[in-house]
Amino acid sequence: MKKFNLSVIIVLTVFCMTACKDKQSANPFFEKWENAYEIPPFDRMTVANYRDAFLKGMEEQTAEIEAIVNNPETPSFDNVLVALDASGQLLNKVSGVFFAESGSNGTEEILSLESEIIPLLTQHSDKILMDKRLFGKVESVKEQANVADLTPEDRRLLHETYLDFVRSGVNLPEDQASELKKINEELSRLENKFGQNVLNETGSYQLVIDKEDDLAGLSAGQIASAADRAGKAGLTGKWVFGLDNPSIMPFLASSDNKEGRNKLLNAYLNRCNNNNEYDNKEILKNIVVLRNKKAKLLGYNNFAEYILERRMAKNPKNVYALLNKIWTPGLKKAKEELAGMQALVGKGSVLSSSDWRYFAEKLKAAKYDLSEEALRPYFQAENVVNGLFWVTNQLYGVAFKERTDLPKPNRDVRTFVCIDHDGQTELGVLFIDLYARPGLKTVGAWCGTYRDACQDAAGKRILPLTYVCCNFPAPIGNEPSLLTSDDAETFFHEMGHAMNNLFQNVKYHATGHVPSDFVELPSQFMEHWVFEPQVLAQYAKHYQTGEIIPQDLVDKIQAASKYGQGFATTEYMAASYLDMDYHVNVSPEAINVLKFEAGTLSSRGLIPQIPPRYRSTYFKHTFEGGYSAGYYSYIWSEVLDCDAFEAFVEAGNIFDKEIAARFRRHILEPGCIDPADELYLQFRGRKPDVNALLRNRGLE
Question: How many CB atoms lie within 10 A of CB 99?
């Protein structure tokens, strides 16, 4: 028998314990963040830190759940509902930071961990929400709770928590519950793979131009940006265009190179539909099949019914009713726009999808003497940010103070503290990340939180940390980032979400979440101010001369404000129909993705020159989750935001502070303390009117 030196064993044991302790203490997620506002120390975080924190976070929450279940005291609102809502703090801490990072800096290591961790999180969530012992405690509180002893927010927490369990399958027999867990795990894997495929295929494509003549029609800024991208790709002396919006959309609108437009748009429309490693057709079909199985296990006819039960829309019938009401005038307007462009090019030419933006821009210039390139010099990114801050100050009295001393996730980010109208109360911290990072940053624009607003155990408001991510063209050399009018509108939109996060004033984590067809109200509401003459006069300044945008350009913007709404409405609505049809379809097993998509669009008369905003294989909103059976939410919320803005129009003052205060009090602050339709009624004093939307889009 081999003998061991006891002293060596003791030394090694102490060393191992010390090393393990050092490893744990070195992980920033296991520490209290001592910097101002407890902002994540981004520069210290590694993939290993994220993994360890996720695993420990799930372990801690599991222990917290066991403590609730095994508590010998009589179940009460505090020892069950409040304790459950407060559980998982470490898990929330790491999740907020990690998923922000995976969206904005999706390195291979980060995306690999995302694929590993998402199924584990799904298992963890199912374990909690299918725990019959825990649900028994919730049921006991629900049956015994004295409504008079509960605040409206308490009652809402109880109602929503109870529904969470029921809708997660806690009442299913064991065999069906086991099947549902497998479905959820596989769905989480497939949805994550779908999104990563879109990111990879979008980032990997390049349209390389090596002849200067093929750049005709493009502005000097567009050409410089393409040359810069080529240089970074090792293609000096050439020009590279990609599938991210700052690259492709100006090219489609400006380039005289029809062959180039065709190639670029074809690549854009066929992302993840190329029968390669990133192809999403089979993944998509499996997602639809599994979602349908899940819905039927839980007692619903289809997945859309399951999703819409907790939305303002309530059911698919109401969604289709709204879509149909807007589709008909939108399609009519689109056909009028097509006829106008056809007249411009003559009868001998047949317009294609890659021609639409190009000739729409030509027609806009002919009708209104206005083009995006004429506007760009007045939409410097920094000025647009300042314009938004001015608007929020006029409406709510808040101010944004930039801080360069606070941690931030990358060098592009700017950080601001939001201060309330009293000049002292800090509402939260805002991070703005404006510029595209092809291949790393998810396309589009979004707003999220590192930490949500709620209250700690002592009743003190926890300051939210919210961020806005966009994909605008980055500055090149001494040239600043110049935005399109659509970019400016996008920034105002995402900042509407950020204001919602900064103003939110709820007690519990769960009552801060609102339905997706209501959550777009604050964002789309902010869009109404971006092109108002009073607002343009504040921020639309020429980046070289400082000249305020001239009145004749403002007049042209106003005159052209409803131009192109046929295209904008039908491309959005086509995607909304596509999303709904996939989730109402009664035989998803029979789906052939391309045939299904073609049938959905042709049956409603979509003209071939207008593809849906998102074709099936890169439709991340619906197949990566978040807006599954919910892409209609933007138009549903637009009914609300147009009607809400009319309150200011009716008052004769777009900065009416009393109306703004009412909007803040009833829409931005309360989360879902009351049902969404009741919150809107409290703000407006009546139900919303769809005619405001039709007028705003010029579709009366």
Answer: 16
